[in-house]
Structures are given as structure tokens and as C-alpha cells.
Design a protein that fits this description.
With 144 residues, this protein is α+β, with helices and mostly antiparallel strands. The protein has one domain. The protein is built from one helix and four strands. Strands 1-2-3-4 form a four-stranded antiparallel beta sheet, with helices on one face. The chain is rod-shaped.
Length: 144
């Protein structure tokens, strides 16, 4: 009597090729994820630096007219070891094409230019802020 039983030689595991392909796919996905995380960290650092520069500039511009007299000229200084500033104040002439003589004005406009320079990692970056400020002219200055 013959037996119809067959002995199965097929194994139910992964081949070496399948394991290598799975490992390669895992490595590619891991490397991509790490690059995304590194890019996110760089962008966060840049955003932090930009926010700090904007806050420094805002505080310096807020001081003008309150703690420092707003007058024509230049000045400079440091916010911290890596951040410095340069301030230029010049009269601003408003273009006027009318036919009325404009020798007198109740306010005078000053153009304020603030350049904030930061140095991080051996790289220097300058950010420029410009604004106009109105001041009341000193009419007694011309009389002596």
C-alpha cells in the first residue's frame, strides 16, 4: 500500500533578499525622517533669530523720542555680544508739486534707518529697518 502523504520542504520564513529589501526601505525612511527633523530645527533657529532681531529693533525704535531726543545724526551700539546696531536719522523731504509756498510746517518728518547686525557661527547678517517719525520743529532755534 502506497501512502499519499507528501513531505513538504517549503519553509514559511523570509528569504535573505526580502530581509535586505525591508532593511533598505527602513534605512531610507529613517534617513528621510531625520532630514525632515534637522530641517525643522534649522527653520526654528532662523525664526528665533529673526524674532530676536525684530524685538531688538522694536525696542530701539521705541526709545527714540522717549528716552533719546530724535535729532539728525548717527549713533551706534551693541545689544549683546553678537548683535550690534547703527542708527541714522535724516530729514525727510516730502515731494510737493503744488503751487502754494510750503516754507512753514507744523511738523517735520525724519527718516530713521536702523541696521541690526548679528553674527552667528562666523556668518554676519544685516537687517535694515526704516520708518518715518514726525517731530515738532524747534522754531526758537533759528532766533538768537
Amino acid at each position: 500500500m502506497k501512502s499519499n502523504m507528501k513531505i513538504s520542504t517549503k519553509q514559511n520564513g523570509f528569504t535573505l533578499l526580502e530581509v535586505l529589501i525591508a532593511f533598505t526601505m527602513l534605512a531610507v525612511i529613517f534617513a528621510t525622517t531625520m532630514e525632515i527633523i534637522a530641517g525643522s530645527a534649522r527653520n526654528t533657529r532662523k525664526a528665533t533669530d529673526n524674532t530676536l532681531v525684530a524685538l531688538y529693533a522694536q525696542s530701539k525704535l521705541d526709545e527714540l523720542g522717549l528716552f533719546e531726543k530724535l535729532e539728525e545724526g548717527s549713533s551706534s551700539g551693541d545689544f549683546d555680544d553678537n548683535t550690534s546696531w547703527e542708527l541714522d536719522v535724516v530729514p525727510y523731504d516730502v515731494p510737493y508739486e503744488g503751487n502754494v509756498n510750503q516754507d512753514f510746517s507744523a511738523v517735520e518728518l525724519m527718516e530713521v534707518t536702523l541696521v541690526v547686525t548679528t553674527e552667528r557661527g562666523g556668518r554676519q547678517r544685516q537687517t535694515e529697518f526704516k520708518t518715518l517719525r514726525a517731530i515738532t520743529p524747534d522754531f526758537n532755534q533759528g532766533r538768537k
